[in-house]
# Entry
Amino acid sequence: MKLITTGNNLCRIMVSDEYTELAKILYELVERDEKYDKVVIVTDENVEVNLYDDFVKSIFAITNSKYFSKICIKPGEESKCLDTFNEIISKFIDIGMSRKSLVIAFGGGVVGDLAGFAAATYMRGIDYIQVPTTILSQVDSAIGGKTGIDVGVYKNMIGAFKQPLFTYINTETLKTLPSDELKSGFGEVIKYAAIMDDNGEFEKFLNDNAVEVKYLDNEKIIKAIMKCAEFKARIVKADERETGLRKILNFGHTFGHAIEMEYGLKHGEAVAVGMKIAFKVALAKGYIKKDYYDNFVELIDKYDFEFDFSKINIEKLVENIKKDKKNSFGDISVILPDASSCVGIFKMSSDDIEELLKKEFNFM
Ligand SMILES: NC(=O)c1ccc[n+]([C@@H]2O[C@H](COP(=O)([O-])OP(=O)(O)OC[C@H]3O[C@@H](n4cnc5c(N)ncnc54)[C@H](O)[C@@H]3O)[C@@H](O)[C@H]2O)c1
# Structure
């Protein structure tokens, strides 16, 4: 499989099923052009066990290993914190990184957000490359330059916008992902079908090729990831700082976040369920037709996101939505489908949401 380049001048993205081209680029940047003096690969323990050796083997086949160091963190959201950030910055200093050094974030969204934030702040900012290894990071977090860490239970409270030099996606890495992570990632992929304003083309692709995509058929998974990455790059270019349009990437998240913790769901799974609720609200409001609703919910289920809605406590759900920091000024902003493959941002009061969900839930 050769390298596919996509994205735009703000978000440069390369997609492949190997690392040869990345190795060549690193050789050029570090040895041929001497643009960087040192390269630090930040990764986590799971990625280290599953992928690191093959990754560096590809890189060192072309570039001298003497330029490279590794920092390995503990996996999981708990690592996206000030302590690990401090640990990484201290290691940057020990390694002797300068303003001419380069960071590679090799892992999922946690590694990407954390290493990206370390790069954004070390010596007032050095360059970094995103090499994402989960579906979520390949279609979302490694593109667009949002970096950051959590503070206690508060997500992404400290952060910076810093675009990576480029994002290099190798879809082969998905083969070692645990099945629950894989499934969760597909929640985010399906989200793109709802927001992509492409006359339903991506929805049809995901529908027609559900088995191949789920089982990571090479050609189909590359196409799926590329479509999402391309679209994310387009959105980011139009609204880099999330003042408007970029918010549509949060489709499914308002309702999703409100049930994620409550029912112990993985993030992408909660997004899938959140999308179903958003579709339900849009149908009740008359924004979409019943056949679009039926087809989309069927697509979500094809990726194994059936959910027993009878166990949802609607009052609690609305309570959780109200607590969301994005909704602290009265009305709640909800992203809803308002036509086929299209979403809009709507204001609703919490009472409206509660009343509507209570009325509609019985036929979900
Ligand atoms: N910056 C953004 O724009 C943005 C957007 C969305 C989400 N995020 C952030 O992304 C994070 C979630 O990212 P995630 O879902 O990738 O989670 P993650 O980074 O925690 O990865 C999930 C798990 O999979 C493991 N893993 C990663 N790649 C693997 C592989 N190829 N094989 C085997 N195991 C592997 C990890 O060690 C981890 O245990 C959250 O912190 C979220 O806030 C950021």
Q: What stands out?
A: DSSP finds 14 helices and eleven strands in the chain. The chain has a mean pLDDT of 94.
